[in-house]
């Protein structure tokens, strides 16, 4: 009698300790940085708004999920996700091979090439291949030539970028041995240093820089040199991140996101926040 | 346990140790100079000097070092006159100099308070004895007040130096890849925060342990009068009675 009671307790403890197996997704916690405008930014009242918030609300509506947004600094989003502090990360995160080793991604909801920003009147305003889009997934002669020219022209220059981004991986591979690469905690900080003249060029996502250029302080800045996309470093696009164990949640999310992409809702949010459609 | 990963992380973080020590050394060296000036101003008896020191300590002790570093590095560079100054900009342009300036200004506030306290704690009796002995004010300061005050300041000063060792970790926010910056980069690249931060933590512990032992040794050297006298009973042999 007594032993069977203990057995029941043990069985209860077992079921309680493995909620992931049978988790019925009703509410999910979603982390964003809240300072990566216009993807996600904090408004004057302290609320997080932006392109990704609109996508999230749409997806959660379709999937009948209750989604709560929490703010988490960029450098803690992946450790926080794997540690179970939240269930989804949406923070302009590119789907890359390196990250896929640790976490999983939804289908991409946007694609945004990386680009360089510099002073209009500075020495780097004349960077070659200006405005050209280089697709690294092709790995052809054109992309090799463009990378070589870029390396030559950035030799000895101060390049600023955000730590732990696809840009940082790109710079590790192509620029670190020739240029002085400075890694910042946030993108705002490398913008400040570009304006202050400590940096010759800042390196980030095109859509992010569109936001920078909209600021009055940035009137002397402009896009310089080529833009890059694709390949193993820059990846196929930007998606929401999940724990590898949460395949069920990922499926729910993907189904709703696909519907939102197909009926043009995501494109609509993109036009609203970026003035261009970045889902293509 | 992945020993190879621990070893390679340890080694990568250790390679940044010279940079950490550089910030630390210059930060406390300049900090000591400023603190000495502040202590002298405070003790000089001039009202204006005292008010200045009080205001300085209020500002630099009352706000976080991180805020001061941000304001010096990102804040000052917003002003055109700073960016166009041939004297200020070469210093403030460089993240290393900015960090050293911020650390020196910050620690000077704490140290000046430590030194003020130590000067006040010098026993009045000793100073009066020196006066009675006919010493001039300078001699009195040199051979009575200063040595006693230094010894009194040492424990609190060593704590402040250890705090500064840990404060060097803030330099990574202005793109300096010292030990903490390096550790964070490895952590971002590998997504293994526990292993990486453990390695960094162990190195900081060992560093601070060495500093603490060094100060304990200096304290020992400076306070022979506080140790119990050597046991005399064994040395003096009783006089033989045959005499």
Question: Which helices and strands, and how do they pair?
Answer:
The complex is a heterodimer of chains A (280) and B (243).
Chain A: H1 2-17, E1 27-32, E2 35-36, E3 40-42, E4 48-49, H2 51-63, E5 66-71, H3 77-82, E6 88-89, H4 97-100, E7 104-105, E8 114-119, E9 133-135, H5 141-153, E10 158-162, H6 166-174, E11 180-184, H7 187-196, E12 201-205, H8 206-213, E13 221-229, H9 231-234, E14 241-242, H10 247-262, H11 265-274
Chain B: H1 3-14, H2 17-43, H3 47-62, H4 65-75, H5 80-83, H6 88-92, H7 95-120, H8 124-132, H9 137-167, H10 179-190, H11 193-222
Report on the architecture of this protein:
About 3% of the residues of chain A have low confidence. Chain A is built from eleven helices and 14 strands. The N and C termini of chain A lie far apart (65 Å). In chain A, the strands form three sheets. A six-stranded mixed beta sheet of chain A has the order 9-13-8-12-10-11, with helices on both faces. In chain A, strands 5-1-6-14-7 form a five-stranded mixed beta sheet. In chain A, strands 2-3-4 form a three-stranded antiparallel beta sheet, with helices on one face. Chain B has 243 residues and is mostly helical.
Instruction: Say what oligomer this is.
Output: heterodimer
Biggest sheet architecture of chain A: 6 strands, mixed
What proportion of the residues of chain A form beta strands (DSSP E)?
Answer: 15-25%
CATH architecture of the largest domain in chain A: 3-Layer(aba) Sandwich
- Strand residue percentage of chain B: under 5%
Would you identify the regions of chain B where 5 or more consecutive residues have pLDDT less than 50? none
Number of strands of chain B: 0
Number of helices of chain B: 11
Shape of chain B: flat
Query: Using DSSP, what is the number of strands of chain A?
Result: 14
Element order of chain B: H for helix, E for strand: HHHHHHHHHHH
What low-confidence regions of chain A span 5 or more consecutive residues with pLDDT below 50?
Answer: 14-22
Instruction: Sum up the overall morphology of chain A in one term.
Output: globular
CATH superfamily of the largest domain in chain A: Periplasmic binding protein-like II
The biggest chain-chain interface is: A-B, 20 and 18 residues
H/E element order of chain A: HEEEEHEHEHEEEHEHEHEHEHEHH
Briefly note the CATH topology name of the largest domain in chain A. Answer: D-Maltodextrin-Binding Protein, domain 2
Return the average pLDDT of chain B rounded to an integer.
92
If you consult CATH, what is the topology of chain B?
MetI-like fold
Total domains of chain B: 1
What is the share of helical residues of chain A?
A: 25-40%
